[in-house]
Amino acid sequence: MSTQSTVHGRSGLGTPTPAVIPGAVLWAAALLLAVLAPFALYPVFLMKVLCFALFACAFNLLIGFAGLMSFGHAAFFGGAAYVTAHAAKVWALPPEFAILAGVGTATLLGLVFGALAIRRQGIYFAMITLALSQMVFFLALQLPFTGGEDGIQGVPRGRLFGLVDLTDPLAMYYAVLALFLSGFLVIRRAVHSPFGQVLKAIRENEPRAVSLGYRTERYKLLAFVLSASLAGLAGSVKALVFQLATLTDVTWQMSGEVVLMTLLGGMGTLLGPVVGAALVVALESYLAETSLPVPVVIGAIFVFCVLLFRKGIVGEIAGILKRRA
Amino acid sequence: MAEIVLEARDLSKEFKGFTAVKGVNLQVRRGTIHALIGPNGAGKSTVFNLITRFLPPTRGRILYKGRDITRARPADVARMGLVRSFQISAVFPHLSVLENVRVALQRPLGTSFHFWKPEASLHGLHERARDLIDAVNLAAWADRAAVELPYGRKRALEIATTLALDPEVMLLDEPLAGMGHEDIGHTAALIRRVAAGRTVLMVEHNLSVVADLSDTITVLRRGEVLAEGPYDTVSRDPEVREAYMGAGHG
Description:
By secondary structure, chain A is mainly alpha-helical. Chain A contains 13 helices and four strands. In chain A, helix 4 (95-117) packs across helix 5 (122-142). Chain B is globular.
């Protein structure tokens, strides 16, 4: 599949032949770059990028392909982070099971949130998800196992499958890369599956999809649950990378940040959220060393990008490539 | 007289103190083209939305093939073979023409929730989809995004998509609205062609447009049935003439 696989009706039906070979080469180059990256850049920084990239990709599955704007995704990200941290630290579960516990929690939360929220649309949908995620925030603040303001600190990374020692930064990096890639591929497949086709139809024109006999609320619910699970995976991995789960992970600002990353990179494109996440994380860590106020600078960049590239960075590039083709 | 396939009994719809549809009785006979016409605000589209269950009625019943569907869900009504179109051309703009039709074809495969299957699993539907696209003269546009089609072609695509479900009853909401003269001719011919072996209920604004297309015409005014019958009878009705004064009838 070519890199410019945007939502706009490009799913290999058009003129596939000329784009396929350079596309495959580009993917291979990107993979090679990701494998070699920790030798040039700080692994913890790269792992942070990958966690947020996966989080943004999961969010994008919902907004970009189902047309549903959630403002409560921090609940899945942070909820999974807490459960994974607790499972690894208190229950002493190995990392694979700790992650599974986090993803399971996010999936269940997604099922409950989704079942309630998909009954409404637009701003009401966003407000219901926000309200529910605030409930998760207060639970994280009050429940005894979450450590209140301190969060859960000193989470052990453990040994993956009892073999790979994740305290080694490189081993941890490759584990995170593998998890990110699996999540990304799941999303890519879902977008190009029979389910993805119906989802796009619902996003484009829901009443028409209903008139074709689709019970659209069920498709939206499945998209919501998938998105929540993958956001949970991102949160679980993040808890192991930083050995930490804190209130920051469940705040509404975190829900806002993922919206920002996705819009910046280009919603409805597969690579957009990855680019957006990398950009925001890189800016945050770069600006942290300067005396500039981080939120103001990022806010200004966001406004600038949204005004200039309405389809996001990747969306605009894809548009230019498409016009040339 | 032919069998009644679709029937509305004493159908009423009130919106906060305003009665849009008042005790409408409608009987659509199998195999006919039935037009529902009336001036602006006559309640045509409301009746249409009630029958297809996109709006709940305040009173009255809807029967489809003798079955009460007054409380059925809209998606389920569609599955029973009662498929509607929309006033604003209802396509999926950023899907290709082929994908638009394929979405309608793919539900019976039973894989519509399978998010792990490749898109290639749908390629078996392409032949049937292309046949349908050919049937509405859109073959040259098959791989273009629906948003790029001119208006008249969008309506043709919408009809192809509706036909993909092989509906027993097609409900067309102003299929000729907003079209130029030439497009009207094409689309009217298309409707007549696809109506063979089916029942069509269509909403239209103008009496003249449906004159030689429909077998039966029901005229609505202010939410009530004003007249019903073949074109010749209806067009001579003095009350209908009055309702249409200056509305360009033929």
